[in-house]
## 1
Amino acid sequence: MLTAYDRRIARLAVSRFGVDPVQVRHACVELLQRRRSSSKSSHSDLVEILLERHLLQPNQAHALREELDKTQVASSPAPPKPADNGTTRTPDRLGRFLLLRKVGEGAMGEVYYAYDEQHQRDVAIKILAKHLQENSALVERFIREAEIASRLSHPNLVRGYGTEYDEHHKVRYLVMEYVDGFSAQQYLDEHGRFSIEDALHVALDVARALEYAHAHNIIHRDIKPENILITRSGVAKLTDLGLSKQTDQSSTLTGMRQGFGTPYYMPFEQAMNARDADARSDIFALGATLYHMLTGRVPFDGKNQVEILEKKEQGLYPPAHLVNPDIPEDLSRILDRMLAHRPEDRFQTMSEVIVALERTKLAGQYLSFADPVLAHRDPVAQLRAQSLEAATVLDLQENSDSKGLWYVRDSYNSGKVRVRRFTTDQLLQAIARGQLSPDSQVATSPQGPFHKLQQYPRFQPALQEAALKKSQLPQMPLRRSLWWWGLLGLAAVTLFALLLFLSLR
């Protein structure tokens, strides 16, 4: 089975360098065959196969690897990985940890699902690749990730348990919380984009994690879909703190490097100098990530990093609501502010971002693809849903005092939807006349979100009065019907008498 990393190589080979998609599929088939074959290296790489088939030139392969190595310094390629000659083998055990299966692989090494026998819990083990252990800067980054992850404790951050060194196998590894799920990037690879409700749900989870990290003087600096893990119960967790910066301390890694992070998501000022990154840089990266989740494409695309940075410097990208017409314009404006070129034009704190996103009332209480049983058992998911519900009730109470316009949405069996505009007085009159029911869908904006009329405290007295009048209506038709039957009977008798009188003459 192809990994998300393999699929990304295939897509970039086609989109960036014009490789024939059919030839790329054949290369993918060969890659899978090599991995299944015991006579071939299990670490075969799709880029190598594309080179062997002369589908890529060496300089193109080099550029492709640079682009894929998104957690490395933008100006320097990843250290070359030595060929596997059959002598290297991943151990089955590291200290007290039993390695069960590999769940991921990146430029820094491999990640395994493991069992901690001492603490009797499932964990994730990130093993630093052996050929990188001589690189002091990368080792520092690896240790920094462990230290920061172990200090921070938030339900939307992947918890770190520390870093250790195995003397027998000569490997350094990081022990982390195991997340039973998948990354946002994997979801994008498979489905193209998130629904608006799901994208806002994930973005708010990540925003809360960043709000907590910023409060502890930690800037993440590498927010992207690949670093957002989603549990089966529907909780998003931010991971990979290797590029994070502590704002009250200096970093030799930052001093050595000009700009690092992910070119598609990091802001212009961070690309120029990582020292300039602050909380507003994370706001930009989260905005770019949310834009990708909503539209299925990154806001700033290009054939290379220079082209991407030029677009960022000029602020050139299509507004989200033009790429995906389902996105309301007010949400698109929030993204525009998050993606502003100048940091001072963005939201200044992650708390402001959370308030703005919650105000849209577009985030789902639970992810649509989450396991419903696990979601209702997970205390984090429950707390998340309760906070959203509380925010919605608060907004309804505030909106109930509005003296502006109201919008009523009517749905028909044919599938057509009509939105009608009312003033507050007109809405009250429609309720009194029985033209609107407690279940009528009402909003303060034509784009919604729409809520049942009975949820607005302002209209509850009018609804109760209308219900009381309706309960008295059955008495009125009975009296009227007796009156009309009486008149009809009198008219019939009069007509019969007249006809009899005329016949006798």
Note: The first helix runs from residue 4 to 17.
## 2
Amino acid sequence: MWSRRNFLKSSSLVACSPVVPAFLARTARAAPAGKDTILVMVQLTGGNDGLNTVIPHKHPRYAQYRPTLRVPSSQVKKVDDQFGLHPSLDGFAKLLEKQALGIVHGVGYPNPSQSHFRSMDIWNAGSTAESLSEGWLGKALRQIDGPAFHLAGNNESAPLALEGAPVRAPSVRSLDDFQLKLGTTTGAESRMQKSIIEGSAANTSGDGLLDFVRKTAGNTYDATRRLKEVAANYQPKVPYPQTGLANRLRLAAQLIDAGLGARIFYVSIDGFDTHSGQGGANGPHANLLAEVGNAIAAFYGDLAARGHGERVLIATFSEFGRRAQENGSRGTDHGSGAPMFLVGGRVRPGLIGEHPDLEKLEQGNLRHTCDFRSVYAAICEKWLGVPSEPLLGAKYPAANVFRA
């Protein structure tokens, strides 16, 4: 016969971190928060080539720097007379038509590191300090009523950006990660365990430790049941591409629409370290940009159709850009300033800020014209509703990235 002691010894929640039971109980309590703003960070891992993403197609230096990689003016998705999106960014071009895409020129930081690991840590921490152990989002989560999700690919651990949160953000690959796993071998035993936990949640008569445990168990079980229903019943309002990034963003949409109270989501896509055979209008980099643009466009379209367009912000970033001049292997080497994309119903649409001067390179690199911490400051203060200085270690002027 199964006792409560046997149940507690044999049942568990299978997920990517031991905090998942507490996390799910917390999301259940946070659900009534309602229409709080949501931030979705999309990391482009490897160093995205800004000049092949937002293209200064009319500038004579562009053609000189990119003799084999340049994209002809006739092929770009024009933003204005001087700049255009890469032809594979059709999804972003459609978001721009809907006034839901902001393009922040030349984002970076002083004395940029050319190391993938160091530069990514700087972006994730929001700091150039020598020792970095906490992330800007982890610090923000101390002040936000709601947890975070890391939507992971294969063998991908949670980023530094989320370190320092009061509850460690779980790395999730599917909603199955949150299903209650019971240590039984028969259907009868499984039903008995579920009956025990449901009975424990209902049998609460005070504020003691036992009642707290019972309530937590009940909340956790209810949350897993809700997530199972979401997985089974969710029908996207627009079709998602069959790509890894789109699948992870579709999972984010499921969790957002479930109303569990999460405020921050983090997802990444690798492959942007394009030292050789990068391609111009076509090729590996074009394919990556297509995956990013189409996945984000589907994700935002799905959420907007569900009434979340005004409360979600999607922000892309990469640890650095690429050098202005292509190399001898028809690729590009590590650089500095590059664009960030912001997507949402309250984003200031179009080009934002000043593009790096193609006539004034710094050791072959584009000089940044916008400190990334100014973008973070705007997100903290005007989107998440938290002061930015404690998160970033100094006061940075908030970039003008949102509608007035």
Note: The longest helix spans residues 209-233.
